[in-house]
Amino acid sequence: MEAWPAPNVPTLPGTGPQLRLFDTAAGRVTATEPDGIARMYVCGITPYDATHLGHAATYLAFDLVQRVWRDGGHDVRYVQNVTDVDDPLLERAAHTGENWMSLAEREIDLFRDDMAALRVLPPDEYIGAVESVPELTEAITKLLDSGAAYHVGGDENSDIYFDIAASGQFGYESGFDRDTMLKLFAERGGDPQHAGKRDPLDSLLWRGLRPGEPFWDTPLGRGRPGWHIECSVIALNRLGMGFDVQGGGSDLIFPHHEHSAAHAEALTGERPFAKHYVHAGMIGLDGEKMSKSRGNLVLVSKLRAAGVDPMAIRLALLDGHYRADREWTGGRLPAAEARLARWRSATALDAAPDASGLLAQVRERLADDLDTTGALTAIDAWADSALADGGTDGAAPALVRDLVDALLGIAL
Description:
Elements: E1 20-23, E2 28-31, E3 38-42, H1 53-71, E4 76-82, H2 87-96, H3 100-117, E5 125-128, H4 133-146, E6 149-152, E7 159-162, H5 178-187, E8 203-208, E9 216-218, E10 221-225, H6 227-239, E11 243-249, H7 253-268, E12 274-280, E13 283-285, E14 288-289, H8 300-305, H9 310-318, E15 326-327, H10 332-347, H11 356-367, H12 372-389, H13 396-408
Parallel strand pairs: 3-4, 3-11, 4-5, 11-12, 13-15
Antiparallel strand pairs: 1-2, 6-7, 7-8, 8-10, 9-10, 13-14
C-alpha cells in the first residue's frame, strides 16, 4: 500500500540532543537510545470515516519523534498499518450499503491527503491488514503449535484465541489491575463474556467464518484476522523485536498495545516488544473525547475545505503537550492563526535578532518529551522581539524558518 508524499525537510546546523520520551510501561521519562537506525511503529487508522483532529494530534506527535531523531543524526525506519478489515468498517459499510472495500479505499485516500496537507512525514512502509493475511495466518499457526493459542468451537471454521498466560508477564505494558483490564476490554472491542474462552481477557486472533462477512480460505479455516495480532506481526516482521517506539493514542494502552506486545513476545520468546510504549492524549469537544462512535468530530478535511491553512491546524494541535488530554475550543484555531501570522511576519524581515540560541532552546524543549508548549513560547519571544525591535542578523529569519519547518513541521 502506498503512503503519501514526503515534504522537504531543511537541514539545520549541528545536531540536536538525545530524545527523551515518557514510557507508559516504565511510568517515567527515559532516554531513547536507538542502536543504529531508530525504529518506530505507530498504529494506523481503521478507515471507516474521515480523519478527525484526535487522529491528527496523534500522528503529529509521532511526526515530531521522527523529526527530533533525524535532527539528532539518526536514520529512521517507520512502519504504520491500516486496519482495512475489521468490525467497525464492516458495520459502517452495512449501515450505508457501501461495499466495505470501496469505503476503506476512499477513506484511506482522504487520510493520505490530510497527512500530506499537515506535512506529516510518511512511514517507510504503510501496510494494510488485507495484504498481511498470509503472514498473520502463519503467525497464528505458530501460536497454536506452541500452545499459546487455542480453538473455541468445534468446526473447521472455529475462532482462535490467544491465551494470556502464555505471555508470562501480561499486564506489564499498561500496569492496570485485572478489574480495570476487564472494564476496558469490554469497552474497547474485547469479548470477555464469550463462551469457551480460558480467560475472559484472552483476545481473538482469528474470527471464523460468519455469514455475510468477508473471509480468507486459509490453513486456519475460513475467516479473517483479529485486530491485535495484525500490529504484532506487521511490526515484528519489519522492525524486529525490541524496536524503539510503539506509538498510538492513549486509548490503545489497553487492550490493543498490551495484547500486541503479548502476542509478539509469545511468538519469539523474547521481550520486550518495544523499548518505549508512547501514547498521545485525547482531543475533546464539549467535554467528550472526540471519536467516530460519539459523532462529535472536527474533521481535518472539512477545515481544509473551509479554507483553513493546514499549518494553522498543525500549530493549534501542537499548542499543548502531546500526552495531555485537551479540548478543541472555539479560540484554539484563531489563536493559532494569529501566531502563524506573527511568525511569518517576523521571518519575512530582512534582519532579526540572532537565532542560534533559539535553535538550541527549541531543540532542548522538543528533546524533553516533546515539550511543544515550551518550544512555541521560545519562538514567540524571538518573533515578538524581531517585530518590536528588529535586529542586525540577516541570516536569522531564514534560520528560524528552517528550524520551525524541520523541527515542528510548519512551513512559514
